[in-house]
């Protein structure tokens, strides 16, 4: 078994509004990407990072694509030896080694095992400014990364037109559409995603409290 980590880090970080790409913004003393690299390296034989143009200089850095899923596809193409893949966004620097290991353990007979948190807000479906209905919260999960896949299932799910890849907000949804089964792995609440400057401050406070 060859376990390859893939970190999509090829976004521009528009909503963060930093000087450069979000994955390279300094967070608690190191580029944000490095927190995820460290957590994945503990369980992976190799980690391939999809980066924005101009950041490919280091080993195992490849150029990202126009969408997140295209970045994942480019990185996977650079890892033909992979039999199991751990996909994890650079934008979730609070991931722990334990969560990565747990997703790998839970893969079992399924095509994927993904980190997710039970939804705590009440969620309603809307149409314009009006509520259509209230969803049954007890069945809802907010999905995160890491997402662990059988490499063949992910390769064939990513073999799709650019528009379809651009519309997918995670990789597991592509595997689900292809009939794959996906296991939910409950993640700790602090595995948050850094999108805005406020998220950056919260992530920094948590990372500093861990040291
Ligand atoms: N990503 C990527 N390639 C892209 C777009 C996004 O590898 N073409 C990565 C980002 O670097 C990030 C993850 O996918 O680690 C989740 O994306 P998001 O949080 O939306 O990051 P950005 O696209 O960089 O941010 P924004 O949407 O605010 O520009
Ligand atoms: Mg984005």
Question: What do you see in this structure?
Answer:
The model has no long low-confidence stretch (mean pLDDT 97). It contains seven helices and eleven strands. It has one domain (3-210): Spore Coat Polysaccharide Biosynthesis Protein SpsA, Chain A (Alpha-Beta Complex), CATH 3.90.550.10. It has 211 residues and is α/β, with parallel strands linked by helices. The longest helix has 14 residues, at 197-210. Helix 4 (151-157) crosses helix 6. The strands form three sheets. It has a seven-stranded mixed beta sheet, sandwiched between helices. The structure holds cytidine-5'-triphosphate and magnesium ion (MG). Cytidine-5'-triphosphate is lined by residues 8-15, 22-23, 50, 64-68, 71, 89-91, 195.
Question: What's the topology here?
Answer:
Blueprint: E1 3-8, E2 26-27, E3 30-31, H1 32-41, E4 46-51, E5 61-63, H2 68-77, E6 84-87, H3 97-106, E7 112-118, E8 124-127, E9 130-134, E10 141-150, H4 151-157, H5 162-167, H6 171-177, E11 182-186, H7 197-210
Parallel strand pairs: 1-4, 1-6, 4-5, 7-11
Antiparallel strand pairs: 2-3, 6-10, 7-10, 8-9
The protein binds cytidine-5'-triphosphate (CTP) and magnesium ion.
Cytidine-5'-triphosphate (CTP) binds at residues 8-15, 22-23, 50, 64-68, 71, 89-91, 195.
Short description:
This protein has 211 residues and is an alpha/beta fold.
């Amino acid at each position: 078994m060859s376990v390859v980590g893939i970190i999509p880090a090829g976004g521009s970080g528009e909503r963060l509004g930093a000087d450069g790409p979000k994955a390279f913004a300094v967070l608690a003393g190191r580029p944000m990407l490095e927190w995820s690299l460290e957590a994945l390296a503990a369980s992976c034989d190799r980690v391939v990072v999809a980066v924005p143009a101009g950041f490919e200089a280091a080993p195992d850095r490849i150029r990202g694509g126009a969408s997140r899923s295209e970045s994942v596809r480019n990185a996977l193409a650079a890892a033909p030896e992979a039999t199991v893949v751990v996909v994890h966004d650079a934008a979730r620097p609070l991931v722990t080694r334990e969560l990565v290991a747990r997703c790998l353990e839970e893969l079992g007979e399924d095509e994927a095992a993904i980190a997710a948190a039970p939804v705590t807000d009440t969620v309603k479906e809307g149409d314009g400014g009006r509520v259509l209905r209230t969803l049954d919260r007890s069945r809802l999960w907010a999905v995160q990364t890491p997402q662990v896949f059988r490499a063949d299932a992910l390769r064939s799910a990513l073999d799709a037109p650019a528009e379809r890849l651009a519309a997918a907000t995670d990789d597991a949804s592509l595997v689900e559409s292809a009939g794959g089964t996906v296991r939910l792995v409950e993640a700790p609440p602090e595995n948050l995603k850094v999108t805005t400057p406020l998220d950056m401050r919260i992530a920094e406070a948590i990372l500093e409290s861990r040291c």
